[in-house]
Amino acid sequence: MHLLKPSWVVHSDGHRNGEIYTLSVNPEGTILATGGQDHYIKLWETKYIYEAVSNPPKATKELATLKVNSSINCLRFSPCGRYIVAGASDGTIYLWKNKQPSSNNFELLTSVKGHTKDVQDLAWSPDSKLIVIGGFDGLVLVLECPDLKTLKILPIHGTSHVKGVTFDPANRFFATASDDKSVKITKINQSLDGTYTFTEEASITNPFQNSPGTTYYRRCSWSPDGNHIAASNATNGPVSTVTIINRDIWDSDISLVGHDLPTEVASFCPRIFSVDKPIPGNKTAHLANLITVIATTGRDKTLAIWNTSNPRPLLVAHNTAEKSLTDVSWAYDGSKLFVSSLDGTVIVALFEEGELGYVVPMTENESQLSRYKRKISNTKDTAITLDDDDDDDEDGNDNDVDIEEVKPVLKEPIVESTLPKSESIKKIDSTARNEKDGPGSKTTSDKQKISFTKEGRKRIAPLLLNSSGPVISNPTPTLLETKPDPIEFSEPSSAVPPGGVSMLGITNKRKKLELTGAYDNKRLRYDNETHYIRPVSLSFSSELARVRLGVPKIRTFFIRHGDEKDNILEIRNSGDQEQEPTTVLITCNGDLVFRDFLPKFGHLATGTGNKFWSVATEDGTIYLYSPTGRRLLPGIVVGTPLSFLESQNDFLMAITCTGLMYIWNVDTLTAVNSAVSVAPLLDNETSASEDSIVKGPCITQCGVTSKGKAIITLTNGDGFIYSEGMKTWLRVSEAWWAFGSQYWGSSHIEKARGKPKSSEKSDGGVVGLIEHRTNQETMLKAGGRAKLLQRLAKNRMLREGYENFEKCTSTSHLENRVSAAILAESSEELRTFLKMYAIRLAAEGLTKKLEELCSELLGPTVKNSKSVKKWENTLCGIDKHELLKEIILAVGKYREIQSVIVRYASIIGVLN
Question: Model-level pTM?
């Protein structure tokens, strides 16, 4: 294998190389297309790249440059090789077509504004007829080639960023990967009149539960035999992996472990390989051991090559670029691999025969896909079907077209028809006969397959028509037009620090939108798309504040979902506020509950629908509504625009752009705490050097618990809870515990509880959630601080005087957990952590600490008690004597401490 990095394949402005986000190779393997930050798509002749091993070119071998209006995030050649489709950061989709078959001259055919935010990934159907596109607005678009007509808009991932798309080579499904930590499989159904419907087949979530949402891509890929999907940015414990999803059962039991940081791209080679070398004269002997090959890349700048017969990678190339790798494209023959990087370079891998395996003929691909009744739709660039009576089911239905009679044309594109559609239908049979008998025609030995339908009609399976003569296409059926579904935009403006826009998971989970492309008559319909009106205006005092947080931009409309199904809050902002006020609408099951008007633009909202609704306007006023729409209070004035507005049960939490936090109990209409600043959290690690100020951490998540406790996590992994009694912030989680404590990780918590997460109470798991967030920010990112702490912990354990370092740190970690659970009033976690802590003390022989713990739980009934403070008999709503009994029973088997606990056991009646 040779690894090349041609210095002339760059997007340069003469001073520096621009970032390359995506690339693709045409099916013939002669043209490489690259797209990136500089608003250009560049076409390169690949033969000069291949020859660079022995004969570097003296000049840049650039074939053409295609100009667009914004950065190109993804581009793909069509399977037929005639088209290039690209998605841009402004939401525009472009389609180019080469003027003549096998030419290098591409002209812009059309462009559409399909998304309101970045287009992140796209995929072609195998017949080059459909394009599936995903973007940051959470929508999945299905477009028709070549006019880019929108067939369907699918909000299957709610409002989460869609970062990966792949198409089933059998043309029955497509898969999308999103930041909602799922891969969703959508089935394609086509009726006899040519209209499409799409249904959700499956949703795979388990491999992605702990995956970070910080990756720019989640590119996935379908295997050429149709059996598997490789999905990036999965995890196995704290380790970043690529997961393999099995077809039909849609589960994942295989993880590819070989990357240190989150993976962003997984790509199957389009060819199937054999482990055995072909034997001359025996065409089938080497087909017994077939494999497929996968390439994976990610943030660790590592390229890994795998095959399905080996659990270990065939190749791992570290530090192939100076920055993250962004995209992968295989040549059609499977012998070349192209990889793009943010450092503006392209890496090319050239494989010799047998290194990956031995390529089998394409007929084997078709044979493998025939098990799934591969469907080929009518298209101008693929074979024509004479009678498409295809069924959508994957059972043994005889009505499906057999794959051996219908094969896509790759190297000989078909000439398009210039006849009217009405004439095309009448002359199709005669044209086919004339082609067969005419000069230059190619004799074929294929026989048409004849079958009979349930009604007794004869059905003849189509044959490929030769491309040497004119070919007439079937008329394109009228397609169902649908309006875009309502979508929710929860992303704030670009002024918010990176990583500082997500909401805390302990708040009420928003319901996902329906999969169907349009709502029924009872559902709320939307007539317009969301657009940004302008950023929120800040006052002069806000500009000079010690803390300045990002504020969401004002949108034309947005929605929030309550706990009940179809309970929706909608905010509509008029572009001209002097003419039309802001409208607040609440609907339930499509019926209007109430309507209200506000004098200012609304930009944040929250609520469950059962307790209350809350809307914040740009001037820093908060309005509270009952579930029926009654105003509970006059507008709450906090003085500056809000950055966060969250709710849980009866509590409402607001954080202003100047860093002041408020929490109210809406049921009693009282303040839980006065205005509290988050400045101590953000200023903690901000420092100044001689040349510049080092940026401090940013808020990644915030929320309020069902007990009214404020929770905030930062980008450095630290998690905080505000103590109203102490009047200060307390750090309950940090990266230090991850590298020094034996008890780090949620698995210990679940094992001690003896029940899964799904059975936890709504007010439980607060500490575990914060620690999970810390784990994401440190372990999975494995940034500089994480590596420093890991080295520090290991080095200290080897030095003299630090032999008990891990023991002490683990004990301190459990003590921190117990106090944090008490602070958060998390009763179930307190019960679990106290048991773990007592067992730890008993195992280590720390009798004094154990006796102190038992004494505090027993209370002033102990004869020699020196406690003079008022003693409460409950802790987080649990009887202290009950906790003491559980501790005594848990540590009773440790002989060393039995002398300590026996008297406590006798007092509370355990021995009796």
Answer: 0.47
